[in-house]
Amino acid sequence: MHRFFVSLSWIHGNEVRITGPQAFQIERVLRMRSGDRIMILDNSGWEIETELVEVNTNLVRGLVRHRRLSAAEPRTKISLYQAVPKSKRFELVLQKGTELGVVEFVPMVSEHCIISDLEDVEKRRDRWESIIQEAAEQSHRGRKPAVRRATFFPQACEQARQTNGLSLILWPAEDRRTLRELLRNPSPSRTRGWPPFTINLFIGPEGGFSNGEVALARRYGLLPLTLGPRILRTETAGLVATAALLYELGDLE
Q1: CA–CA separation, 132 vs 128, rounded Å?
Q2: How confident is the model at residue 191 (pLDDT cuts 50, 70, 90)?
Q3: Final residue of a structural domain among 14, 49, 69
Q4: Cβ neighbours of residue 182 under 8 Å, at least 6 residues apart?
């Protein structure tokens, strides 16, 4: 069943009215007709099964037949703080991170980023939102991940601290703490409230985090850890870590 995220204002009681590009897609691209059913998503976590009763290029009208909570949203809420790489690589992170279950992306500028201007980063926002929506529909998400405004690394550390979640920073030079060890053998100070509900995951740029940045991250309460002996690309590291976190915490079952 085809899935569409729509504006909440398009849902009026048991009637759904779809206009614009999505109406065109339903009528001209998918060639759907009255009697066909689609899944409407209002980004609240609910799935709304809808029967089409009128299909035109400019307007598609449907009647709600069933509502249910999405089963695809993970219990563990991962915010991915990604140092912004080249545009195509960041788009891959957004697409695949959405498919995996990331709930929030925070574009971040750190010392070794190729792009250093926050305004340059923000120019791609419309493209990012489109990629996330398509990936969320394809992967049966009930909510679209948020994309926060781009920020510098120190401000990102402060933002993560304010969430009171578990904050992790991947750093290849860390040779004592691995992701698996952390999750399977939490320190005594962390056993209460374990497993974590909110996780902030920091991923460095192509050149990695500097020693000074890691020292700053420690002061904000971030835990440096490694994924193992292999050095992963920036667009790979966050996806691997996200998948490992969700698997270990039971969100891929």
Answers
A1: 6
A2: low
A3: 69
A4: 168, 223, 225
